[in-house]
Design a protein that fits this description.
Distance between the termini: 64 Å
Helix content: 55-70%
Structural class: mainly alpha
Strand order of the largest sheet: 5-6-7
CATH superfamily of one domain: HAD superfamily/HAD-like
Length: 325
């Protein structure tokens, strides 16, 4: 969809949209703003008052000159295989019918997707109904097809917005790989966490990049260079002191949240290794939650094991195995 937007929206609108929607797009990159909201805002800025015929013409040109190279060869192979089997093949997408409809018609495929609302020959800058993403994909598929009438239902997805659709399929493929049935141990829902958790993780990753460090160094250099202009005044010093204090104060909480979750995840993975290893002591699970005295007792036990193993090495024996004290 981004490529189509650049081709179908005038340059001056693209520039205005970039300036107005930059905070929204940044929030999406950080995982704080939904793609649905971002797309709605882009459509509002880019297509309000646009010619319906002009956008349709851009869509036909896009379907003819861009989509053939954009669709992965393996996806085309799967489509050809399904058609050869006599299957009903449907493209279910959050993209716009302006460019998807001509391509699907040329390929002989059915289509369920998002479309733009219009009033006469002019677009209103809104979607015609809900965007075809997440649960809406399932609702549209169920509205057109009786899934119970099919012995097999295949679904292919690449993003989190396809998870709902994959959930109703008997054969599901995510990012090119088939998703096998989950084992009983994996029945716990793997959600992405709260909004704050996602923001903390994204902010920590973003701020840890080399270019952000370089930007911070550049900011300090600019501040130092401006010293003579302000006579190295108290106000000049207060600007950098206040700015760095606020940023440091906020980053402490973000980094601490990320570290806490990472530490807990590591502990869970270590617990699983202990649980799955034959001969391992399950009493070592959740050691991080026991009292200091109990930890000292376990530590003393393993120190004794280490001393015994070193003694075996000194005698020319092997130190491998699972010795008991």
């Amino acid at each position: 969809m981004p490529d189509f937007l650049r081709r179908s929206i005038p340059r001056h609108r693209l520039l205005i949209g970039w300036l107005l929607l930059a905070p929204l797009v940044l929030g999406y990159r950080l995982g704080c703003v939904s793609g649905t909201l971002v797309r709605r805002a882009i459509v509002r800025v880019g297509y309000t008052g646009a010619s319906r015929a002009g956008v349709a013409a851009s869509g036909r040109d896009f379907a003819r000159s861009v989509l053939p190279d954009a669709v992965r060869p393996e996806a085309l192979q799967r489509i050809a295989w399904h058609k050869a089997q006599g299957h009903a093949v449907v493209v279910v997408s959050g993209g716009l019918d302006a460019y998807l409809a001509p391509w699907c018609e040329a390929q002989g495929l059915e289509l369920l997707c998002s479309s733009l609302a219009h009033r006469g020959h002019v677009l209103t800058g809104r979607y015609a109904g809900p965007q075809c993403v997440r649960g809406e994909k399932v609702r549209r598929v169920r509205g057109r097809y009786d899934l119970a009438a099919f012995t097999e239902v295949y679904a292919y997805g690449d993003t989190v917005e396809d998870h709902d659709l994959l959930g109703v399929a008997t054969r599901k493929y995510y990012q090119g790989r088939e998703v096998l049935p989950l084992a009983p141990l994996r029945t716990i829902a793997m959600d992405k966490g709260s909004l704050y958790a996602r923001f903390a993780k994204a902010a920590s990753r973003f701020c840890g990049r080399p270019r952000i460090f370089a930007l911070a160094v550049l900011l300090i250099v600019v501040w130092l260079s401006s010293g003579p202009l302000f006579g190295f005044s108290d106000t000049w010093q207060l600007v950098i002191n206040t700015g760095t204090t606020i940023i440091t104060f906020l980053m402490v909480f973000l980094i601490q949240n990320t570290q806490n979750r990472d530490t807990e995840a590591i502990q869970i993975k270590l617990d699983e290794l202990i649980r799955a290893t034959r001969g391992a002591h399950n009493a070592l699970l959740d050691l991080e939650d026991i009292e200091e005295q109990s930890l000292d007792a376990f530590r003393a036990r393993y120190r004794a094991l280490a001393a015994s193993a070193r003694a075996d090495l000194d005698l020319g024996n092997e130190d491998t195995g699972t010795p008991e004290p």
